[in-house]
Design a protein that fits this description.
This protein has 490 residues and is an alpha+beta fold. It has 12 helices and 26 strands. The longest helix is centred in the first third of the chain and has 13 residues.
Length: 490
């Protein structure tokens, strides 16, 4: 089992139950229980809370036949997986630490792998859904971001547009899943005037098609001159390892421009690769290759069977896959724009850097996801390239396997609170939507961050008003891997 995060280290781990291996015929695993057997075995080996779930105990079953009888009691692999997750109901002693809300199982690991590299079937319109003012049923959407090169971009969808119907049908709390996130690849949004949160259709419609697109997460790279300060701005939307070179090139631009202050906009960044997070941290500030960036805590079995040094991640001066030198700005202060959609690997960078440099946050409180996952496949060793990869199905799991901390052994499961609090203006308190243009100095959150850099002023002069009761969801959260932080595992 090889973790790309630790390219020189081979993890040796022996599953305690010696009667399990990947030879299904010899082990007496019925064909119709192959997937369930994989689910139980993978979680028993790697799940972070394995010792807290009685049915995952190494002593729960004494032989394969007993395990088979247990597995037969579940209606599907998904049903089994859900019942083995760490919750107050299935843990012993009673769970006082919450529950696992981040583990996933999928029946198509190709789609999972694509999602981690920004490849999705989408029309490219990223939006937030709200209940209409005073309504418990009617819903409207506001466009937050449009992916370059997507159909939404081609059809003229713009940030700040409002829509309240799809294909002529009013969006409601009961039908938005089917209308916007169902199996339909084509739909038409019916635009509306905002009208203070009670939208009125204005007769304009835009037809959109979902196609497979790959989004470059290095979305906007800008530099601004403010007096003696040269400010770099990066809108970064996902820690996708296939774009590590593009990320490094952006920092090459900043370095060549003599950037003295940096703003990294993570407001829509739900996370991704831990290795890419390490690269970003190393691009922001310069530390030696022996300086700890982060530390990982796995379950007891994994920790006991591996040297403690294997779980330490270090700053680096190279991108491993390409051998490129890191373009580091060697900053002592960095500014992040954050929101309630900022999670996992984004929070890791914030937390890891805070042990060494001054980290400033502008926006709203982040999600609070200090745990990470790996992809487990049905093979010997559970890796993608493991021996005897089972080709009878394409199920894979993305279970939480580690907790991650900074060099000071710190993290924050409640999320990180911005010292300059300001949320995107969707018009709920002003009656007028004022999102601004991303990357423009007049965009409210960017403008406020520039002001913070140039004046040091923290107060926004206004009280934060949260409208969570009006929020339904957003399009990114409907992706199954929206807030992932994962370690590459082979």
């Amino acid at each position: 089992m090889k973790f790309k995060l630790f390219p020189k280290i081979i993890f040796v781990f022996i599953v305690s139950l010696l009667f399990f291996n990947c030879d299904k015929s010899e082990d007496g695993i019925p064909t119709d229980l192959e997937i369930e057997n994989f689910v139980w075995g993978g979680l028993n080996a790697y799940y972070l809370w394995q010792s807290d779930v009685p049915d995952l105990s190494d002593l729960r079953f004494s032989n394969q036949n007993q395990l088979n009888s247990y597995l037969e009691g579940f209606s599907s692999p998904e049903n089994l997986f859900d019942n083995l997750l760490y919750t107050a109901e299935n843990s012993y002693p009673a769970n006082e630490k919450g529950y696992d809300r981040f583990s996933w199982i999928v029946d198509d690991y190709v789609a999972l792998e694509n999602a981690f590299q920004g490849i999705t079937v989408s029309n490219g319109m990223d939006f937030q859904l709200y209940l209409e003012n005073g309504s418990t049923t009617n819903v409207y959407g506001v466009v937050r971001y449009v992916v370059p090169g997507s159909d939404a971009k081609t059809q003229g969808v713009l940030r700040g547009m409002v829509f309240s119907s799809v294909d002529g049908t009013q969006i409601t709390a009961n039908n938005y899943q089917d209308l916007l996130f169902g199996t339909n690849t084509d739909y038409t949004i019916n635009l509306a005037d905002f009208n203070g949160g009670n939208p009125i259709l204005n007769g304009t419609s835009i037809a959109l098609s979902k196609i497979q697109i790959q989004e470059n997460p290095v979305a906007i790279v800008e530099t601004f001159t403010e007096g003696t300060k040269k400010i770099g701005y990066l809108l970064y939307n996902q820690f996708a390892s296939s774009y590590d070179s593009e990320l490094n090139a952006a920092f090459g631009t900043f370095k060549a421009s003599g950037v003295t202050d940096l703003i990294v906009d993570l407001r829509y960044n739900g996370g991704g690769s831990v290795q890419t997070a390490t690269y970003l941290g190393s691009m922001i500030t310069t530390e030696s290759n022996t300086t700890v960036f982060s530390k990982q805590v796995w379950n007891e079995k994994v920790m006991e069977n591996n040297d403690a040094s294997n779980f330490i991640n270090y700053f680096t001066d190279k991108i491993t896959d390409t051998n490129e030198s890191i373009n580091s700005l060697n900053l002592s202060t960095v500014y992040f724009i954050v929101s309630e959609d900022t999670a996992s690997a984004s929070e890791l960078v914030i937390n890891a850097l805070s042990a060494y440099i001054d980290v400033k946050l502008v926006g709203t409180q982040t999600v609070g996801k200090q745990v990470g996952s790996i992809t487990l496949y049905d093979s010997e060793g559970y890796g993608r390239n493991g021996a005897d990869l089972n080709t009878n199905h394409t199920y894979a799991m993305q279970p939480i396997v580690l907790e991650i901390k900074n060099a000071n052994e710190e993290n924050n499961p409640n999320g990180y609170t911005a010292e300059v609090q300001l949320e995107e203006d969707f018009g709920l308190d002003t009656g007028v939507i004022n999102l601004g243009e991303l990357g423009s100095k007049t965009e409210p959150l960017l403008a406020r961050t520039i002001q913070y850099i140039t004046t040091g002023a923290r107060s926004t002069g206004k009280t934060i008003t949260t409208f969570n009761k009006n929020k339904i969801t957003n399009s990114k959260l409907q992706r199954p891997f929206a807030n992932e932080m994962y370690v590459d595992f082979k």
